[in-house]
Write a structure and sequence with these properties.
Elements (H helix, E strand, L loop, with lengths): L12 H6 L41 H15 L6 H8 L13 H13 L11 H18 L4 H4 L7 H13 L7 H38 L3 H15 L3 H8 L10 H21 L8
Helix pairs in contact: 2-3, 2-4, 4-7, 5-8, 5-11, 8-11
């Protein structure tokens, strides 16, 4: 991972670390693809073994993997140099041989997870290529739920992010559109995925609350029916009452994948229709 330091932009925590004398001077290299963190618990806090190590015995990848495991388990706010050092059985100050600051660590964590997003080599079918990426991005965000709090306001321009963006733009080459239009297409799809995941995370919280409510209140079904009758008596909510009458649950767990695919189809087909109509996608 540290050989990619030169691929970060000349601003932010990564740049500050790179400019420290004797630090981060490895040669530039390709973005490092890391194993999918959803397939193993090897990085979970407490699974590390071995003697206490100094900074030279650690790797940045180890530090980042442990930080991600802590965030997955306890939230991003639980990540600290001290906690990471305890898991790795190292001195907290030794971590700073590999990091400039906690902000630097966060950048590395976010970029590392970009390596888990599948971005296919361009196939010539731009809609299918973007569909594969959107599905994978959704899975990564749902697996690492803390990321949604950072990704919209803080996109890390690290090597994995740059690799994904470059391949995504390559998928649109066959459309023969200007760069601004290509960026607008990618942003439209990305905005949909982020919004869909944000809603799903809200649904998951609501589902837990409802399960707790049902456990605590065995009469909840009767209360809901009384509420429905009060709404019907007003004569004002006929369309909403159709949802209850037709037993449609807009937050149903079993329809989440189907609803995501419906929205993604709408976005991609809408973009295709706009392109077919000869209307530009650039802002100018």
């Amino acid at each position: 991972m540290e050989q990619d330091d030169e691929l970060w932009p000349p601003f932010g925590p990564a740049a500050a670390f790179r400019e420290q004398p004797g630090r981060g001077r490895g040669r530039p290299g390709d973005a490092h693809r890391r194993p999918d963190r959803g397939r193993s618990d090897a990085r979970a806090p407490g699974n590390q073994r071995g003697r206490s190590r100094q900074g030279s015995g650690l790797s940045r990848e180890e530090i980042v993997d442990v930080a991600i495991a802590i965030a997955d388990s306890d939230g991003a706010e639980a990540v600290s140099m001290r906690k990471i050092a305890q898991v790795l059985r190292a001195g907290a100050m030794s971590l700073y041989w590999h990091l400039a600051s906690k902000e630097h660590l966060l950048e590395l964590m976010l970029d590392a997870l970009n390596a888990d997003v599948e971005v296919p080599e361009p196939t010539g079918d731009w809609q299918e290529d973007l569909r594969v990426q959107a599905r994978s991005q959704r899975k990564v965000l749902l697996r690492h739920r803390w990321v949604i709090n950072f990704i919209a306001a803080r996109p890390p321009l690290g090597p994995n992010m740059l690799r994904n963006l470059d391949k995504s733009l390559a998928a649109l080459d066959s459309l023969d559109i200007d760069t601004e239009s290509a960026i607008n297409i990618l942003q439209a799809v990305n905005t949909y995925v982020l919004g869909a995941v944000l809603r799903e995370l809200g649904e998951l919280r609501l589902q837990r609350e409802q399960e707790q409510m049902l456990t605590a209140d065995t009469d909840i079904a009767a209360k809901v029916e009384q509420w429905r009758a009060r709404l019907a008596a007003t004569g004002m909510f006929d369309h909403f009452l159709r949802i209850l009458r037709d037993d449609v649950d807009p937050d149903a767990e079993e329809t989440r994948d189907e609803r995501f695919e419906f929205g993604l189809d709408c976005v991609l087909q809408g973009i295709a229709a706009k392109l077919a109509g000869g209307r530009g996608l650039s802002q100018r």
